[in-house]
């Protein structure tokens, strides 16, 4: 198995007739999936998603792929193919379309509908190309065939890309529920047919490659939800992802069976379920739906609220209910169901929500105590089926952190893919498929681009480093006004400390020290504000460290008057 | 079941002959365990531990119980009993002893030895009273009997406290390994004997009350570790808690069996294992130990490193190895074993370590893929045994978050403890045992006391709120010097922004706005620096929000010259 050297050089030009594959996201992380294929001078992009920040990226709203690699060649893009409608696959599309609005965007009916709703908020119009499983369409030199895959959102697709360089199968995200609720199976026969034709490169979803066995059918959640409904005392509050149409369908079915009304709460839930219902992916009997403003008219034991917030997002309705900071006051007669996964990184906040709800006595049902969630991604058992059926010449695990990519690579090796044909790449690593062999040939920049408020890319690693220091230690700012010629102190020093845990009474000592330092400096004829700042920074930093053993950010300001 | 009203009043005086129980920590959280018993005007304290901060408490080193409730009555403390040597039970002892050094500290041999090592670092001398299982000792009006319990550290004790008010059994932390490595079983016959005598109040460890079934024996880890040792290519690096003597013993045994040398790495690991070895709790053949400076002389396939860092602590050796920021450079021939639990809140950092090590190709063995950890706390199955054997009149779940306390309360109810005699309290809630009935009678303050660097309690909730804002959004400081009489601008405005993601080129616009605002103010005769600060704050805050949709901390500084 080949894997990237930490210091790969920029790649050489792509060999004539070869196919270049560069993931700008999704390799080494779960999220911001984006793969750029290049052949014969043209580009095909598969997915364009966002990554949600961890605590290491404080204050950031979203993380985008870095488009720099393709920025000079946007006109060479023949299509942007979206495998499905999750944020980590479509969330960055508005940002790419800002740079070239007329990129043809290709996807299934639901995927495009969810994208349109998002683009409307960004006031962007697009050129949608609707495809369905079984379709085969060419975009420039890329001959694309679409295959049905089963996932935690309807209408997901895998894409097979044929070029002169060979046949690539990109699975997108998928699992292989053998009894899917909508009857739409992952197209294993299609995968087998491509395998028989000869797959030169398989790129397959690694998210659950470490998990042994098989994912339980989504269908098995139904009876559990039904049981919760039958035994609930009064209100039922179900939190799940706003795109999980099948999960919501099962909740609606249980509501119908148990004579309860349903109210969708939260902008994204209302929007997405509206789209899904309109397109026929969600079956909602009119008579069971109520608007949020009407819920007080429904007896608590006849009511179901379906909301987001299953990841403990602090501003979500569910978090606010847990903190008694919401008009809906949770009591010991309420049942709350967290019908979703626990995305790594959200454990603390979800735990806080569970404890908050439990404190008020609510019964909390979650994946830790009941089968109210199954994963949307194939476990190792299913991945082995795909590897065995497709028999790829080369294999590249995608969509996963290092641990998942390595685990998937091992599965490929076990099924007989030669180790030298297994390519473990990370974001930005350039893989060329030439003469039927996939090899790492270099790397291009693929750093994080941060969205924070309205700005894209203006919050940098330096800003985040500052935030981490400020967030851990606070700051101490010292302001003095000095005479610009003599350097003599005219006013101050004034100290402003925030988050540093330093009490005002302690300041006197350091103020004396600063004054002494400035007196000496003036006596020595030092009047340069930069030099004076440095003197102040050193004095205060030393004092804080001696006194408190802490290292807040020291911000000296010397105003020359 | 009775549980605290959010706004409980201060408690009435304790009834004659009654026993008052107040947890200053450990109820509603996992950590800083501390219970204060009061009878006949005297106090008995059980445990005095620390809580480790979550992301909600940025920059904080430790969280202590608030001693305010007992501060005025320290002389009334007849003893401080320590159930075992974990940080969440002994970590706050130095801070309590600072306030009264001659409190008699009671504990088992290993517990006191681990405490002494800690106190030596704080330069505190104590009055230790060594006890062992089977001992019965009176401290003031508190007649205390000690019973053996099995836990993830040797020499743990439960304590039965007899007063005129009745018999209380406090389990400490425990599990019921029926084949413990040291043969020291949790004293179920002792519990049964107390049950026959009549337990008026059972206080029992709730940490794993939500987990069904029974904890696997520690003994079952041995073969798994042995298998890892037999199949490891070269170096083996084992990370575990620095107090888990039995776990380390199993690693040492595997090292002996597989002809490997062992090196302890990290201050706490070296110190604690030294103590455990000296007292005979750890058996270490001299010939297998090597010092860290000698490890380069040992062939990699003959070497085992035992270190801390299993929770992904950023400065630990293991984290630095994962980042290639340590002299030990992990390669694809190394095996790393995380032989420990994953403490809630540490998932992100542990995942980062696993991914880092995996990136360099190391084989990483952890509780997710092998039986290299078992919990130290009883699961529901074991807790039921204790409830059934002790048959308490009153029950109070301790050591747990709300979800754990409620789950444990439910188990008690299922075993027949009347609901009205099950008391779910949180920190500071006052429970009185009077006439054989335990009831909530009020509450006392029991907030978090933060240790940050050298200061205790100086970092407040306000500091933390500031840190959270600064950590998410950074700050923008605007400094002006004005004439103290006319309010006219003499110098500035100068802008200093850190962590706000605002680029210098954007400043011009807001500087113009500030100047205009100050001009208008001067024209209106406004010269009060507080008023000018408010004007600047509003101007800049509005600009940042309009321009960036962000809310950094705005820090206006008006220097009057």
UniProtKB/TrEMBL annotation, chains A, B:
Residues forming the catalytic site: 205 (proton donor), 377 (proton acceptor)
Residues where substrate binds: 242-244, 373-377
Pfam family, one: RNase_J_C
Domain of life (superkingdom): Bacteria
GO function terms (MF aspect): 5'-3' RNA exonuclease activity; RNA binding; RNA endonuclease activity; zinc ion binding
Membrane among keywords: no
Keywords from the UniProt entry: Calcium, Cytoplasm, Endonuclease, Exonuclease, Hydrolase, Metal-binding, Nuclease, RNA-binding, rRNA processing, Zinc
Enzyme Commission identifier(s): 3.1.-.-
Residues noted as binding Zn(2+) in the record, renumbered to the chain: 84, 86, 88-89, 151, 173, 399
Keyword presence, Transmembrane: no
Biological role: An RNase that has 5'-3' exonuclease and possibly endonuclease activity. Involved in maturation of rRNA and in some organisms also mRNA maturation and/or decay.
Family as reported in the entry's similarity comment: Belongs to the metallo-beta-lactamase superfamily. RNA-metabolizing metallo-beta-lactamase-like family. Bacterial RNase J subfamily.
Assembly description: Homodimer, may be a subunit of the RNA degradosome.
Protein name (database record): Ribonuclease J
Gene name for this UniProt entry: rnj
């Amino acid at each position: 198995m080949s894997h990237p050297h930490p210091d790969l050089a920029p790649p050489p030009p792509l060999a004539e007739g070869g196919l270049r594959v560069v993931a700008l996201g999704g390799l080494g992380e779960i999220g911001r999936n984006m793969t750029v294929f290049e052949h014969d001078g043209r580009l095909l992009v598969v997915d364009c998603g966002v990554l949600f920040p961890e605590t290491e990226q404080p204050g950031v709203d979203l993380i985008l792929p870095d488009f720099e690699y393709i920025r000079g060649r946007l006109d060479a893009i023949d299509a942007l193919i979206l495998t499905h409608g999750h944020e980590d696959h479509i969330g960055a599309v508005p940002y790419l379309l800002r740079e070239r609005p007329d990129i043809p965007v290709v996807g299934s009916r639901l995927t495009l509908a969810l994208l349109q709703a998002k683009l409307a908020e960004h006031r962007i119009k697009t050129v949608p190309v609707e495809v369905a499983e079984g379709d085969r369409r060419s975009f420039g030199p890329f001959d694309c065939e679409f295959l049905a895959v089963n996932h935690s959102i309807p209408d997901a697709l895998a894409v097979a890309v044929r070029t002169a360089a060979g046949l690539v199968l990109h699975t997108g995200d998928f699992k292989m529920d053998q009894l899917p609720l909508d009857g739409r199976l992952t197209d294993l026969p299609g995968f087998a047919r491509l395998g028989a034709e000869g797959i030169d490169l398989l790129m397959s979803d690694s998210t659950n490659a470490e998990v042994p066995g098989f994912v339980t059918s989504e269908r098995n959640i139904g009876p559990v939800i039904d049981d919760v409904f039958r035994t609930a005392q009064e209100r039922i509050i179900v939190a799940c992802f706003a795109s999980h149409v099948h999960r919501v369908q099962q909740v609606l079915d249980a509501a119908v069976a148990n004579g309860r009304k349903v109210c969708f709460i939260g902008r994204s839930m209302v929007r997405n379920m509206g789209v899904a219902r309109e397109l026929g992916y969600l079956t909602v009997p009119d008579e069971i739906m109520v608007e949020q403003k009407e819920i007080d008219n429904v007896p608590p034991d006849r009511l179901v609220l379906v909301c987001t917030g299953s990841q403990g997002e602090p501003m979500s309705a569910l978090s606010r209910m847990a903190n008694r900071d919401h008009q809906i006051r949770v009591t010991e007669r309420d049942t709350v169901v967290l019908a979703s996964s626990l995305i790594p990184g959200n454990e603390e906040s979800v735990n806080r929500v569970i404890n908050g709800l439990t404190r008020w006595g609510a019964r909390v049902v979650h994946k830790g105590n009941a089968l109210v969630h199954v994963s949307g991604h194939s476990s190792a058992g299913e991945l082995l089926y795909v590897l065995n059926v497709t028999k790829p010449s080369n294999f590249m695990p995608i969509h996963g952190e290092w641990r998942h990519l390595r685990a998937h690579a091992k599965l490929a090796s076990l099924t007989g893919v030669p180790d030298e044909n297994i390519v473990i790449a990370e974001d930005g690593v350039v893989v060329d498929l030439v003469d039927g062999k996939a090899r790492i040939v270099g790397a291009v920049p693929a750093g994080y681009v941060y969205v924070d408020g309205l700005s894209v890319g203006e919050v940098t690693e330096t800003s985040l480093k500052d935030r981490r220091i400020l967030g851990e230690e606070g700051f101490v700012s010292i302001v003095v006004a000095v005479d610009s010629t003599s350097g003599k102190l005219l006013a101050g020093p004034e100290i402003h400390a925030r988050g540093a845990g330093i009490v005002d009474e302690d300041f006197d000592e350091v103020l004396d020290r600063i004054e002494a330092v400035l007196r000496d400096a003036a006596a020595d004829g030092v009047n340069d504000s930069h030099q004076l700042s440095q003197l102040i920074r050193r004095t205060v930093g030393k004092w804080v460290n001696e006194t408190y053993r802490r290292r807040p950010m020291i911000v000296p300001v010397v105003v020359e008057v």
